[in-house]
Amino acid sequence: KPLVYAGAVEKMGWTEGTVVLDAPIVYDDPANQSRWKPENYDENFEGEIIVRNALVKSKNIPAVRTFIALAQNLGNKHEVQGIQKIADFVKTLGLSTPLNLDYSAALGSSCVYPYELAQVYATLNRLGSKKPTYFIRKIEDRFGRTLEDHTAYDDPWASTTDRIAAGYARLFEPGTQVLSRETAFVVTDMMRGVVREGTGAAANALKKPAAGKTGTTNDSFDAWFTAFTRDLVTTAWVGYDLNPHPLGRYETGGRAALPIWLAYMQKALEGREQPEFEKPADLALVQERVSNKTGKLAKGGKDTSLVWFKEDEVPKE
Predict the structure, then answer these.
(1) What is the structure's pLDDT at 218?
(2) How far is residue 294's CA from residue 55's CA, in Å, rounded to a whole number?
């Protein structure tokens, strides 16, 4: 879902305050003589809802409607071509596994590798800059001579000497900007809301700012939680290798996978302060309060949210 909304923000000029309809949808596939009727996990519908809250609450129907709108936009109303372009888009973000070329892809029906999902979230955390993933940071021989070194210059766990050397090396490995910095920050802000008040709220027990997303597949065969602080990205997945049976009716990502993520992150970040996800000064973004129903500017009230807009996309009403 974060990748679907990232596509909508990047390719269609959508914002956190864009209104999408959370109402029943039925898709008929004449070629396969099948009918698909997705539902929200809680089986409730809210009507009009802004994109930010659709992601925070992990609403399925708004994600599907966003996916359809994106496919139509990218395919110039030829949805099959549009879906293929969405598949190409997520590949540029770092997923090598094939995307299901149907609307169910909006809900995570395609298989992904946990380490690649972590890599995509790391790209969001780096404000859209994609860099190579290394499984081994450093290799030394028995005499202490460095044979290979992939240390990141900003790795808080590395020695100062290694970080200085890495800083010089990274001058020649700048990374690839696969999303605009503004889009990456906006999507990260929405995922920050998932942890603050949404389906990933249990992650607040880390007591350090985090942004992420829960995930639960049909019939609870898989439970996911992928989230990050400014320094560290972690994915937790729970499921059976061959899926002989589901985990259980209520074993969601927030219930089954998030506690594993939390236990690990508490140890990994022990004694290490993590800053809030502050907007970098060079980003052309402004924060405004909007109505949760209309996406229009609001002065106050309970049913409102603070959201970020690109400067030229702030509502006028």
Answers:
(1) 78
(2) 16
Tens of pLDDT, residue by residue over 65-93, are 999 999 999 998 888 899 999 999 999 99
Q: What are phi and psi of 294, to 5 degrees?
A: -110, -20
| Virtual torsion, Cα 61, 67, 70, 76, nearest 10 deg | -100
In the three-class reduction of DSSP (H, G, I as helix; E, B as strand; rest coil), residue 50 is classed as strand
pLDDT in tens, 46-69: 999 999 999 999 999 999 999 999
User: For residue 308, what are the contacts with CB-CB under 8 A and spacing of at least 6?
Assistant: 15, 16, 185, 186, 189, 279, 285, 286, 287
- Computed on alpha carbons and rounded to an integer, the radius of gyration of the chain in Å comes to 20
Query: Of 250, 198, 191, whose CA–CA distance to 226 is shortest?
Result: 191
**Edge-to-edge, what's the strand order for the sheet holding 222-228?**
211-216, 222-228, 233-239
Both structure tokens of 110: 């395609």
Q: Could you tell me the two tokens for 238?
A: 């729970």
Task: For the chain, give the number of residues.
Answer: 317
What's the pTM? 0.92
d(CA 243, CA 229): 31
Specify the amino acid at residue 188.
T
**CA 155 to chain centroid:** 22
Name the residue among 9, 31, 237, 18 with its Cα closest to residue 116.
237
Residue-wise pLDDT for 94-130, tens only, equals: 999 999 999 999 999 999 999 999 999 999 999 999 9
